[in-house]
Design goal:
The termini are far apart. The chain has five helices and 15 strands. The chain has one domain: Fumarylacetoacetate hydrolase, domain 2 (Alpha-Beta Complex). The strands form three sheets. Strands 1, 2, 3, 5, 7, 8, 12 and 13 form an eight-stranded mixed sheet that branches. A five-stranded mixed sheet has the order 4-15-14-9-10, with no helix packed on it. It has a two-stranded antiparallel sheet with strand order 6-11. Helix 1 packs across helix 2. By secondary structure, it is of the alpha+beta class.
Length: about 260
């Protein structure tokens, strides 16, 4: 485990990277978490110093014993059809997902929320996650990132590399949907980037929402309107600026976005 001092040092570096004062490929080895509990401590401390409204939450698990699930606030949300600012994701990395909107607040409390309680409080939606890590970018003065090891756990500590989300269509009667059987097509203009059926790591993307919300209820709960992001069916794709990126889940809905030029 990292000490409180080491967590504070890691958080201070990540805040400097966010502000463009520093360029790092990753956290220094001695400050890089080796477990998700330390990742969460760093995320929480960084979040305390970010003055922006929380629009949602990204949840993630590494599927390893002794590595509990992690979550990070999402600060940027756009409606379908939006133009995404270039600085959110300089490499323009995007992935389609089934996300969930919280329609009834589930505040912090001592006991777990049960599955039905969460199911009745959320609506499934089609969306994009834009992957926008701060680590690995040049500083505001143009310095190239050199220090740090650029590890997976550094990336997790960087708010799980979330840049923003794009929210598309609501999915009617989502509780009756067999998500593992739904075809997904992702395109860039007329070029097909992916065509898959199902492929979510849990088959049903609602299942990690239960885990994520019950992690969050220990901390602060979730508010009405928050978007919960879990996992993609395809992972991410680099795309070109100015291209129309569209994801369509057959019979459920779609989402689109365009990256602005740098």
């Amino acid at each position: 485990m990292l000490s409180d001092t080491e967590v504070a040092e890691a958080a201070a570096l990540l805040l400097d990277v966010r502000a463009g004062r520093l360029a790092l490929a990753g956290l220094p080895e001695e400050l890089t978490p080796a477990n998700t509990a330390d990742v969460q401590r760093i995320i929480n401390l960084v979040s305390e110093h970010i003055d922006a409204p929380v629009r949602g939450w990204k949840t993630y698990t590494v599927y390893k014993p002794m590595h509990p699930p992690i979550y990070a606030p999402i600060y940027e949300l756009y409606p379908s059809g939006s133009r995404i600012p270039a600085d959110i994701s300089p490499h323009r990395l995007i992935e389609p997902e089934i996300m969930f909107r919280v329609d009834r607040a589930l505040p912090a409390r001592a006991e777990n929320y049960d599955v039905l309680e969460i199911m009745q409080a959320v609506t499934a939606i089609v969306g994009f996650e834009v992957i926008g890590p701060r680590l690995g970018r040049p500083s505001a003065s143009g310095d190239s990132p050199q220090d740090g090891q650029g590890s997976l756990y550094s990336s997790f500590a960087d708010h799980i590399a979330n840049g923003c989300i794009v929210v598309g269509d609501d999915i009617p009667d989502w509780r009756m949907v067999a998500f593992e059987d739904i075809p997904l097509r992702l395109t860039e203009n007329d070029r097909e980037l992916a065509s898959v059926v199902g492929c979510h790591p849990f088959d049903n993307p609602f299942l990690p929402v239960v885990v994520g919300i019950n992690r969050l209820r220990r901390h602060r709960g979730v508010n009405r309107g928050d978007i919960i992001v879990t996992n993609s069916s395809t992972s991410f794709f680099p795309v070109s600026a100015g291209s129309l990126i569209r994801a369509s889940y057959e019979g459920l809905g779609e989402v689109s976005a365009v990256f602005e030029e740098s």
